[in-house]
Amino acid sequence: MLNKFYIIEHVKNALKEDISFEDITTDNLTNEDDKLSCILNTREDGVFCGRDVFKTVFELLSPDVNIEFFVNDGDFIKKGDKLAEISGPARAVLTGERTALNYIQRMSGIATESRKYQEIIKDYKARIVDTRKNTPNFRIFEKYAVKVGCGYVHRYNLSDCAMIKDNHIKFAGSITNAVNKLREKISHAHKIEVECDTLSQVEEAVNCGADIIMLDNMAPDMMREAVKIIGGKAIVEASGRVNTDSLPEIASTGVDIISTSAIVAKAPTLDLGLD
Fold first, then answer.
1. Low-confidence ranges of the chain (pLDDT < 50)
2. Which residues touch 183 (CB under 8 Å, ≥6 apart)?
3. What pLDDT does residue 1 have?
4. Which structural domain, as residue segments, surrounds residue 186?
5. In what order do the strands lie in the sheet with 212-216?
6. Are 129 and 185 part of one and the same domain?
7. How many domains does the chain have?
8. What CATH number has the domain bearing residue 248?
9. Does the global pTM surpass 0.85?
10. What is the pLDDT of residue 253?
11. How many Cβ atoms are within 10 Å of 257's Cβ, its own excluded?
12. Do 61 and 131 lie in a common domain?
């Protein structure tokens, strides 16, 4: 679940950005006591996501807007489905329409893409996981949408897990140096992940006790060798070159995690509308 207080603060800022000090179209076409009703529908198949955020947009504009939902987050929706009925003050509904749709179209698109990727590898042990390639200040909604779509989330931010990437290795001088220094300084509650692009790096990461080993842009045959080398001593993550065509072969190598930015960064918005 998304925290309500976070939704409220985020939506407030979104409405400030969109409205500024007035909606010159709606405010000059309507009177304060005008009412209207409309239907939220979907124009394509997908996974619905963002119900509470959608509702909050209108709640902040007017307590008199009524919304009756016919779907929940995570429900599969089909083209033409009626998702909700909205009624209340015309000004609030017309002013909030675009902002409310922007949230749920983006979130539903990510949930739909995540479901598609996870479905492809449902017969393997591997999980589809997102990355930190998020839209600034929209990360919590994108990661929530990944979960709604039956995907899994990687670290939420830089304080979640220590991830040693290529530039960290160069700075520290070696994987071993980097891991040892981090072990001395970070909490016992945090894991250490190492990004490897060669088998020799994989061996070094295993030997110095990395908790998670990422196989970065490796071909499937090399991944299989890496999985053998690791031998269950660490969680194995595959990343790079991940798409719907490559997924089954990557999953078949025995990796535990397949991380990809595609389920967020390349997810199309789902076509939803108010009529």
1. none
2. 192, 209
3. 80
4. 119-265
5. 127-129, 257-259, 235-239, 212-216, 192-196, 162-164
6. yes
7. 2
8. 3.20.20.70
9. yes
10. 98
11. 20
12. no
